[in-house]
Amino acid sequence: MLVKTLMITNPPTISVSSKLLEAFKKVNEKGIGRVIVEDNEIKGIISTRDLLNYVVERCEKGCDRGDIFALVDKDVKYVMTPNPVYVYENDDVLDALTLMVARNFGSLPVVNEVKKVTGIVTEREMLLIFQDLDQLFSVKKFMTKRVTSVYEDVSVFDATKLMIKRGFRRLPVINESGEVIGIITAADSLKLLTKTILKNEPEMFFNKKVKEVATNEIYSIDPEKSINEAAATMLMKKIGSLLILDSKNRPLGIITERDLIIALHYQLHLKTS
């Protein structure tokens, strides 16, 4: 299978001369959470994490309206990852998957023979491969058992700092009894931050509680179910994780898109070895 059969075409792009405000506006187009920086050829890539980290680092002790304006008036080169690794349209999907797993990439820009950006492939597209595979492994083999959660009354800013520090894209939200009542993602944080920037109201991001932003719809899975079923559920619901809960709705584990592409790579390697 070729990369071009799975990739998302016409991904969000901006020019190397663009300001960061434009990156904030475009990064969530098509639900990708990334924007490619180009100038005839690919020059860089900016992720949701890059933008959140940029603001959190500089606003550790707070930011006023002037600070926010100054931050987003910078050139994208100050935040982008320059010269990102990319794949060609006609590269084999398995090679792209191996690269994503080995280098811990959540996505890969896709270019044509003249290195013009034509698409992007993310972990979510890779999950489509599961539909053609045998159900060999259960969720419990690849899930993360130690779940980091956040209390509902914690600020979105503090929850975002925790995600950045621990390298997470999401945190289950729990009440004082330890029951899961929702989930907050890096995408949720970025949407609020972008709204904060566009309205120039810093208090929206720095003072809002997690419970005001978190998604209340909770998706879970039995750990004995197959990873194929987990992948199918994530694709159908357009979500990046599934929780494993006990009878009192307390988190016992979590399986993410990242866990699943590692599992996918493992299973495909078994087939070819």
TrEMBL record:
<dbReference type="InterPro" id="IPR046342">
    <property type="entry name" value="CBS_dom_sf"/>
</dbReference>
<protein>
    <recommendedName>
        <fullName>CBS domain-containing protein</fullName>
    </recommendedName>
</protein>
<feature type="domain" description="CBS">
    <location>
        <begin position="7"/>
        <end position="62"/>
    </location>
</feature>
<dbReference type="InterPro" id="IPR051257">
    <property type="entry name" value="Diverse_CBS-Domain"/>
</dbReference>
<feature type="domain" description="CBS">
    <location>
        <begin position="143"/>
        <end position="203"/>
    </location>
</feature>
<dbReference type="Pfam" id="PF00571">
    <property type="entry name" value="CBS"/>
</dbReference>
<keyword id="KW-0129">CBS domain</keyword>
<feature type="domain" description="CBS">
    <location>
        <begin position="214"/>
        <end position="272"/>
    </location>
</feature>
<feature type="domain" description="CBS">
    <location>
        <begin position="80"/>
        <end position="136"/>
    </location>
</feature>
<dbReference type="InterPro" id="IPR000644">
    <property type="entry name" value="CBS_dom"/>
</dbReference>
